[in-house]
Design brief:
A 7-stranded mixed β-sheet has the order 3-2-1-4-5-7-6, with helices on both faces. The longest helix is centred in the N-terminal third of the chain and has 24 residues. It has one domain: Vaccinia Virus protein VP39 (Rossmann fold). Helix 3 links the parallel strand 2 and strand 3. With 266 residues, the protein is of the alpha/beta class. The protein starts with 10 loop residues before the first helix and ends with a strand. Helix content is 42%, strand content 23%.
Length: 266
Amino acid sequence: MNTQPAFTGTVPANYDRYLGPLVFIPYAKDIAERIPGNVESILEIACGTGLVAEQIAKKISHVAKITATDLNPDMLAVAKSLVKDPKIKWEVADMLQLPFADNSFDAVVCQFGLMFAPDKPKAFSEAHRVLKKGGVFIFNTWDKIQEVGAFDIGNQVIRDFFRDNPPAFYKIPFSMHDPNELESLLKGAGFSSRKVELVKLEGSVKSALDAAKGITEGSPILKEILERNADAVVAIENKMVEKLEEKYGRGRLTHQIQAYVGWGSK
């Protein structure tokens, strides 16, 4: 059973509001652009708050069915409230035990979710299993945190507040930055054609404070912070704003981000 960290409570809304434009929407648009134009059915795994599904629905108007799944009901609740498109069906599902028959979809996509799978070969194999012959699997994973702009600064600020026992959550999303590993996982799952490339984009939010709120309150790291010192959130965010403004200036924050994008065909 997949026991990835839970995105619950206030985290999903903050994730969508702040981290969406900061890091996720640019790559959601990138994934949508990579989907072949002739697909009829698409499965998204680890769909979060629906940022990718929304972009796919906008780009490929003829698609009959987009099934967007996530393990966290709270994330899906936010997705349902924000993304209103009749082509999208939302469903709670574990990427390690997809509740779909073999050969069900023309495309499977996963944005920044595979890092959370406790059994990564199984996650890739499940994506392969539910694809039709000739179908494609498109996914992305972050490069090292040092290459993801504001996140590196924000993570260091959080760690500095708890030097004796630093929160460890951000080790997970930034743990799959070896393109050879991604290629090997695609090959091991049986994908006949494979490609992995580094993609550099920009993310942007209206202020350093928005970035700080996303990094601090838009992921399960918030739980780790509250467990250590429930009164530290504001101080952490204020310090983060200071450091981010030193790097990016005041006003709108725009930063460079990079991730690996993988593609495999069955």
